[in-house]
Design goal:
Blueprint: E1 13-16, E2 21-23, E3 37-40, H1 43-48, E4 52-53, H2 67-70, H3 74-83, H4 86-99, H5 103-114, H6 118-136, H7 141-147, H8 153-164, H9 168-174, H10 180-184, H11 199-202, E5 209-215, H12 221-229, E6 237-240, E7 247-253, E8 258-264, E9 290-298, H13 304-314, H14 321-328, H15 335-340, H16 352-361, H17 365-375, E10 377-383, E11 386-389, H18 403-414, H19 425-433, H20 440-449, H21 461-464, H22 479-489
Parallel strand pairs: 2-4
Antiparallel strand pairs: 1-2, 1-3, 5-9, 6-7, 7-8, 8-9, 10-11
Helix pairs in contact: 3-4, 3-6, 6-7, 6-8, 6-9, 16-18, 19-20
Length: 585
């Protein structure tokens, strides 16, 4: 508190009993007397104790704690599900069912560790979302309340007054957003749709809802946009612009509808200045945090919080780069790599089930694009290169695709395998590895990206059972970041998950093909014609332009020699992570 070290923001909060407010550790206000200070493990706990958020440091606006990405216990899984909006949609009972515990046990565990139960934690999340929308958008209050996850306008008003000691209109006016509602609110006439489902019609189709996604710096934005660009599936994703000023765009399948998200690549280090209220933390000692500019267009505003959380996972915005650098920087192999690329992130997934299907399907993005054209749901209003939603697993159980893809989709659709934010990562990895055509390394890759586990690559359970580890134990719990540094530096074959003893030493480099696995793409790429979905390993022959010649059909299957391991397809589940591309937006 005295040093105002922002590295501890989100790790704990303190409240001042004489003022009735709670703050983050880096709050620039005068340090209070110790006798007047109370400490809380979460913003929700401080709110439940009757303290309101400081208007100067905005403690409720800090990026999420990286601890919840690491932890695999009940509390960690519950926090990830609460962040995904499960309590708002399904209540505490739905949260408990997903976790496999009783509501009472979930309540007891969360209260013991965080000082607040699931209802209070979800309420704090809704209140923060509401304040950001009030102070940064022109959404009418009637729409904004539903977008933040509130069930009624009355509940929304009562919560804002209690937590922020002001009315919604006062919060909006304090941020210089006076008249925003007046400019965008009109009385509903005959036949006018009302409620959250009409929100998309009332928003500008060209701009969407502008948001800023906060992160803890440093943040290697160019590298994560490189990673996403080489994987962009035409029809579902696209990258516009050139390096240093790109915009990542994609469609989203959400609970109540669909949406389109746009995220801009920061041009470079931002000049330190105080941002608009409620967006990101002000400059503080020990941080160069910032934000990604984002725009969301949703068919139903109730999906806003869920869409934001999915983008945060995709861009790994809740990571703690200081903790990662402290652990990996001490390693003689990784230390120089961490210093060269500070803030390198481990990208997650906007839709874990989509990523699983794409990974098992294998091959270049054009293969997944053919799947999308055939089975994906077309958008009512295509936007540029965005034309479809990626097909849900239930829509692919009877599709003419390779058997491993159908088997995976059946398991996902039936609930035999769960890949949501609160999934048991170990159980999911074992279930994936047991599927034909998947195998342990592909399952480990999905554990890292689809389930967002930062500890993947150092203690993969499949290797631990054989008495080995994947990489030095000193990297724990940041093995995923170690892998990305090794991939980026070319010390491991691109995209490969190493096995026991396969991590090169300092000064060593991995030769191409040294470790056979799903990263090796054999032969020239074949782009299938419309409606043809090739199976794993079907990439022989010269390059074909769609529609100009025959493409391998779905009935073909790879031979034993064409596979990279027991049950794993030889086609790459993903392209090389950071290969430069010249694809224009």
């Amino acid at each position: 508190m005295t040093s105002r070290d922002a590295r501890f923001d989100g790790e704990f909060f303190f409240a001042v009993v004489t003022t009735g407010i709670y703050c983050r550790p880096s709050c620039p206000a005068v340090t209070p007397k110790r006798v007047n200070v109370r400490f809380f493990p979460s913003a929700a706990a401080a709110q439940a104790a009757g303290f309101r958020a400081c208007r100067r440091c905005r403690p409720d606006a800090v990026p999420g704690s990286a601890e919840w990405n690491v932890r695999a216990d009940l509390v960690g899984r519950a926090m990830r599900l609460i962040g995904d909006g499960v309590v708002d949609r399904e209540g505490v009972g739905g949260l408990a069912r997903r976790l496999g515990y009783s509501p009472r046990q979930v309540q007891r565990q969360l209260t013991a560790e965080l000082g607040a139960g699931p209802v209070a934690l979800a309420r704090a999340r809704r209140a923060h979302t509401a304040r950001v929308l009030l102070q940064t958008t022109a959404l009418p209050v009637t729409e904004l309340a539903f977008a933040a996850g509130f069930a009624s306008i009355r509940q929304f008003n009562d919560t804002i007054r209690e937590i922020y000691a002001g009315t919604p209109s006062e919060l909006r006016a304090a941020a210089g957003n006076r008249g925003a509602a007046a400019r965008h609110t009109a009385p509903a006439g005959p036949g006018t749709a009302t409620g959250p489902e009409s929100a998309f019609a009332s928003r500008s189709a060209s701009t969407g809802i502008p948001l800023r996604l906060a992160y803890r710096g440093p943040y290697a934005a160019a590298e994560i946009f490189d990673f996403l660009q080489v994987r962009a599936v035409p029809g579902v994703e696209e990258i516009r612009g050139t390096r240093g000023g790109r915009t990542y765009r994609r469609t989203l399948r959400l609970t109540h509808g669909s949406g389109i998200a746009e995220v801009d690549e920061p041009a470079g280090p931002r000049r330190r200045r105080r941002p608009p209220a409620g967006l990101v933390c002000p400059a503080a000692r020990g941080t160069d945090g910032g934000w990604l500019e984002c725009r969301l267009r949703l068919t139903d505003l109730r999906d806003l919080s869920t869409a934001v959380q999915r983008l945060r996972r995709l861009f790994d915005l809740d990571a703690d780069p200081y903790a990662v650098a402290e652990r990996l920087g001490a390693d003689p192999l990784l230390g120089p790599l961490v210093a060269e690329r500070p803030g390198l992130r481990s990208p997650g997934a906007a839709d874990p089930e989509e990523l699983a299907v794409r990974t098992v399907l294998g091959g270049p993005p054009e293969r997944a694009a053919a799947l999308v054209r055939t089975y994906g749901k077309p958008l009512d209003a295509p936007d540029g290169g965005l034309t479809h939603l990626f097909p849900a697993p239930g829509e692919l159980t009877g599709a003419e695709v390779a058997e491993p893809v159908r088997t995976l989709c059946t398991a996902l659709a039936d609930g035999a395998i769960t890949l949501d934010a609160g999934a048991d990562r170990g159980a999911a990895e074992r279930a994936l590895a047991a599927l034909p055509g998947v195998g342990p390394r592909t399952a480990t890759y999905l554990r890292m990206r689809a389930l967002g586990d930062p500890d993947v690559g150092t203690v993969a359970e499949a290797d631990a059972e054989r008495g080995g580890t994947v990489g030095p134990a000193a990297w724990r719990p940041w093995g995923a970041y170690a892998l990305h540094h090794l991939w980026r530096a070319g010390l491991l074959p691109t995209g490969e998950i190493p096995g026991p003893g396969e991590v090169p030493g300092p000064g060593e480099t991995a030769e191409s093909g040294e470790i056979p696995g799903p990263a090796v793409i054999p032969g020239p790429v074949v782009i299938p014609g419309p409606g043809v979905i090739p199976g794993p390993g079907e990439v022989p022959g010269p390059r074909l332009i769609p529609g100009s010649g025959p493409a391998p059909g779905p009935s073909q299957t790879p031979t034993r020699a064409e596979t990279s391991g027991p049950g794993e397809p030889s086609a790459a589940p993903e392209p090389p992570p950071y290969a430069p591309v010249a694809r224009a937006g």
